[in-house]
Amino acid sequence: MRDTWIGEIGEATAGRVVEVSGWVERRRDHGGLLFWDVRDRTGKLQVVFTPETGAVMEAAAAVRVESAVSVRGTVVRRGPGLENPKLATGTVELRAQALTVEGPAEVLPIDPMDPEVDEALRLRYRYLDLRRRSLQSNLRVRHRMALCARNFLDAQGFVEVETPTLARSTPEGARDFLVPSRLSRGAFYALPQSPQIFKQLLMVAGMERYFQLARAYRDEDLRADRQPEFTQIDIEASFVDREYILDLTERLLAEMFRNEGFEVPLPFPRLTHAEALDRYGTDKPDLRFDLPIADLDPWADACGVEIFTRARRAGGVVRCLRLPRSLSRRELAETEEAAQGLGLPGLGSLEVGESADRGPIARHLRPQVRDRLLELTGAGVGDTLLFAAGERPVVCRALGALRLRFGQLLELVPPDRHAFAFVVDFPLFELDENGQPTPSHHPFTAPHPEDRSRMAEDPLHVRSLAYDAVLDGVELASGSIRIHQRDVQEEVFRILGMSPAEAQSKFGFLLDAFRYGPPPHGGIALGFDRMVMLATGAPNIREVLAFPKNARGYDPMMGSPAPVDPAQLRELGIQVTVAPRG
Ligand code: ASP
């Protein structure tokens, strides 16, 4: 069995007899010699079997790739011209003297070294897929980032506390995964959507500084960067304000990402939620490139262009995106089509020319109005302005999406540029599809002190003390200063349409805890999987998890979820009838 890691072998070990262990990655027959590439966790080494070894070479000839082997032999320098500069061990090779086939491999269902294998098969044979160097490296980055977070938070006085996985449903806006109870028949645990309530109770308990690399579970439709179970770096602290949490978060993120080779300038730029929507059309702005959306409202009121003035009179907005070049006729047509897909009835355009501009609105602009437009948008000769008019959220979101599209199309994002940002002052509530107020973050988020008095009459215009951290247009973290006064918490429940009895039955334990000296507190949760995904440049979140589910929440390796034994159901007192989807 191994006495030397392959990573330790090189010029300096030439002449030594060593035993390496690992997997046969490749094999080649060459003029009576047999060559293997043997791989362990630390590297790859060429192993040579020569005819003089007799039975050893014969045994080696029968070994299939990806078998687990140990080889004893002498490290020798390769002859001139036979070196392989692509291998760290490429100046030497191992002349085999003895071979143990530790675990023979049958013919493989997938080749773990082939980058093109279909993902369904990769997940089915994940234990082979994980032999892939990129996946092993991702898991190592994941480990390093977790360790870095733990060390950083420990040094700041935070204590890692584990909280239950079998819990009660807490409202984080998603569906719960439920677990039936055998001892309380007919009742269910819920897997926590986050440890939110537990961490708040730890603050009431006087822990003061809590963190946890916590598993959280949400039964949502999956996307590239979502899994039904995921890991958060969950943080909470007492007697702190928003500034404290934002400062802690940016230092934590800087530490973790700098450790992975990112440049992370501090402090992070901060935008209010309203600014993010107005300037970038989204609450997760990608600040790797500029191209802000210009607000043309006051200009539009008196610009003399009928479609704009009409939109303003109807209570709408007029916004504009400046592109630093002209668009071909085809590009313009494609952009207009994309704009319609984004809910805009139309898109005005203007190409700024030396003496005359091009585009349908060009002739409607008086010289002074045009000058003011160029001033407001910062546009110069050769630039294209894209205009949208209508309801603010629709216009902003659509231009935000077009901004991202042009960021890519015009290659405005240099490959190694990254941009962190904080978005603050989210609204406390938003309307759900039934027109009912629902929390923008979660119902424990404190209202902004400046807006507190407006809560009863005008809840939809109350800002909150919630914040997000964003990296390259991806939401990395969300948190808030919490409500710690019982009456405010009750008022929020009331605005959410919950009767006092319902609030008491769902959250009685929290409301009760708030009777007994609750400290002011706040925190944040960082999406750890997404962070690793961005740090490694992995194309999706499954590449940074050892055993992910597929896009339908199914694990093809274990075959889960799966029906269970009728005896198990009998013990739970459960009968299953599967109703058709409806
Ligand atoms: N529990 C919240 C979440 O998972 C984070 C927080 O408010 O700390 O999004």
What does the overall shape look like? Answer: globular
Number of domains: 3
Report mean pLDDT, rounded to a whole number: 93
CATH level 1 class label of the largest domain: Alpha Beta
Figure out the total of helices.
16
Structural class label = alpha+beta
Name the poorly predicted regions: none
What's the short version?
It contains 16 helices and 21 strands. The protein is an alpha+beta fold and 582 residues long. It has helices spanning 55-61, 119-124, 126-129, 133-155, 196-204, 242-258, 273-280, 297-301, 306-313, 329-341, 367-377, 392-409, 486-495, 500-513, 528-536, 566-572, and strands at residues 17-30, 33-40, 43-49, 68-77, 92-103, 159-160, 178-180, 188-190, 209-217, 229-238, 270-272, 293-295, 317-323, 348-351, 384-390, 420-424, 429-431, 437-439, 466-471, 474-481, 521-527.
Structural description of this entry:
There is one protein chain. This protein folds into three domains: 6-103, Nucleic acid-binding proteins (OB fold (Dihydrolipoamide Acetyltransferase, E2P)), CATH 2.40.50.140; 136-270 and 421-545, BirA Bifunctional Protein, domain 2 (2-Layer Sandwich); 289-413, Gyrase A, domain 2. It starts with 16 loop residues before the first strand and ends in a 10-residue tail after the last helix. It contains 16 helices and 21 strands. The mean pLDDT is 93. The strands form five sheets. The protein has an eight-stranded mixed sheet, with helices on both faces. Strands 1-2-3-5-4 form a five-stranded mixed barrel. Strand 19 (466-471) and strand 20 (474-481) form a beta hairpin. With 582 residues, the protein is of the alpha+beta class. The site of aspartic acid has 10 residues, from strand 20 and strand 21.
